[in-house]
User: Fold this.
Amino acid sequence: MTETVIPVSPDVAKSASVTAESYEAMYAASVKDPAAFWDDHGRRIDWIRPYSTVKAVNYDYPDVSIRWFDDGTLNVAANCIDRHVATRGDQTAIIFEPDDPSEAAQHITYSQLKDEVSRFANVLKGLGVGKGDRVVIYLPMIPVAAYAMLACARIGAIHSVVFAGFSPDALADRVNDSEARLVITADHAPRGGRATALKSNADKALRRCKDSVKLLVCTRTGGQIDWVEGRDFRYEDLAETASADCPPEEMDAEDPLFILYTSGSTGKPKGVVHTSGGYLVYAAMTHEHVFDYKDGEVYWCTADVGWVTGHSYILYGPLANGATTLMFEGVPTFPDASRFWQVVDKHKVSIFYTAPTALRALMGKGDEWVTKCDLSSLRILGSVGEPINPEAWSWYHRVIGKGKCPIVDTWWQTETGGILISPLPGATPLKPGSATRPFFGVEPVVLDDQGNELSGAVSGVLAIKDSWPGQMRTIWGDHARFISTYFEMFKGYYFAGDGCRRDEDGYYWITGRVDDVINVSGHRMGTAEVESALVAHEKVAEAAVVGYPHDIKGQGIYCYVTLMEGVEPSDALKTELANWVRTEIGPIAKPDVIQWAPGLPKTRSGKIMRRILRKIAENDTGNLGDTSTLAEPAVVDDLVANSVHKQ
Ligand code: 6R9
Assistant:
C-alpha cells in the first residue's frame, strides 16, 4: 500500500516561523543541549527576576524531581495581559461567541482584560483568597471563566477548573482533594439551547464539603437560584466596589499555577500540578510554532476550559503570545450542524483547532452544512484528544481546508502541559493519522514491555526521555503516586500510557492507551471510575468496564454488570443504571452498552481479565487468546453468546 504523504505547501512555508531546514537544526540543538536551548527560549516571557539556572531535572527512580528556571520569578497573568497593554491595548484579546447565535458576540481588548482580571483579583482578595490558596472554578465557557483563572494567577492562588459537565459528586471530590477555600460558579450554563443548573449542582456538592468553603456566583442567565446567606456571594455585587487596579504578585517559577484533575487507571482522579514559569514558556512556544500563529490572526480552539487543551491553547499560550483567542460557549450542532463554520466566517478565523469526535459527528451530517459557508479565512487546522482516523482526516483536509490548509495532529496530555508530538505547518510533510515528529526539546522513545529502547520502524510503548519545561511536577497531595504512575514501570523515562508505532521516516503513530483508561469523545476516563459508580448502586454486585470502537465517540463505554442475588435483569434496569452513572460522574460517562454478566472472567487470584472483556466488546471473539488461567472458563462462553453483537 502506498502511503499518502502531503508535502509542505510552499505558500505556508514562505512565511512560516519554522521551515524544514530550521526544524532540523533547532531540534538537534534542543536535544543536544536542552539547558542552552531553553535558556534562550525562556526569555520569550517577561521575568521579574531573571533565572540563572535553567534545568534541574532528575529522572532517576525514585528520586524524580523536575524544576525549570528555578530561581526566576514572574507573574503569569502579567505575561498574558499587562505586557501587551502598551503595544496592543486596543487589540481584541478574547472574542466571546455565545451559545445562542442571536445573542451578540463580545470583543474584549487587552486593556479591558486587564481591568476585568484585576477587578476579579480584588474580589478574590476581598474574600480572603491569597497566594497558594486553592480556588475551584466551575463555570460555563464565558469570558468570566478566563477572568477567574487569570485573577488567580495574578494573586498567586492555584486554580482548579472543573468541567461544567461534571456532576455535584465529581465537583465535591475535587474541592475536597484540593482543600479549596472558594468555589466560583455561575447561575446556569447555556449549552446547545439548554441550560445546566450549575449553581444548584454546586449547592449539592458543597453539602459534602467543609462549611468554611465559600461560593462566588457569577450571573450568566439571571435564572432562578437558591441562596445560602453567609456562604454565597454575588460576583457583580462585589465587583461594583472593587478596584480595577491589582498589582501582580511576584511568583517563583516553580510555584504551582494550577491543578487539573484527570482520570488514571485507578479509581481516584489525579490532581495534575503545573507550575508557573516552565509551563508558560512551553505553552507559548508550542502555540506560536505548532499553529504558526501570526500577529493579528484570529485563533479558535473549540475545547472547553475545563480540559487542559482549554488551559494551554485557549488561554495561556495564545494570551502569552498577544493573540486574539476565541471562546465559544456552544456545541458544534446547535442550532444546526453548520455552527462551527458560521462562527469561522463570522469572526474570520485563521487557525481552527478541534477534536476528531466533533469532526466525525459533523462529517456524518453531510457536506452541505459546510459548503454553504465561505471558510476562506482558514489557514491552519488542528486536531487533538485522540487518534484521528484517515477518513476524518481527509474530510477535514478536503472539505474544511479545501486542500490548502495543513492539519496539525497534536499529541499531548494533561500531564505534558503542552504539545509534544505534532507537525509544524511550514516544516513537516503530513501523513493522515500520524502526529508525525517531536517538538523542540522532546525525545520520544519506543520501548518494549521490558523497557528496552527499540530502534528503527517498530511498535511498542511510548515514553519520553528527559524533561521539557511544560511537564507536570507532581500529583497534588500524592507525590508517591506521581512517581509510581509515570516513572516506576520504565525507569529513567516519563511513561505516557500510550502505545505507538514509529515508521521508517521517524513519524509517530499513536495507537491509543495501553492502560485501563478509555478515550470517549476525546475525554479521558478511567474504567475504574465507571466501575465504582456502578457498584455504588444497591442492585449491582460487580462491574467491569472496557472501551469498544464507536463511530462518533472514538470509544464507547461497554459495561459488564453482575447483579445482586435475587435482582431481576430488565431493560428498565439498564436505563436506570446508565442514568445512575450519568448522575454520579457526568453525562460524558453515561454507558453505551450494559451487558448482564452472571459471572466475570477472573484469574485464580481473582483479577478480572479485561483483555477478554475487551475482545468480546470489540466483537473479536475468534481470537480470545490464552484463557487457561481463568478460574471458570465457562463464563466466557456465556458472555460471548450474550454480547451486544449477538443481538
Ligand atoms: C490533550 C489531551 C491524553 C490522551 C493521550 C492519548 C490521547 C491526545 C492525541 C491522542 C492520538 C492525538 N490523545 N491527543 N491520541 N493522537 N493527537 O487530550 O489531554 O485529556 O489528558 O488526554 O489522549 O491517549 O494519552 P488528555
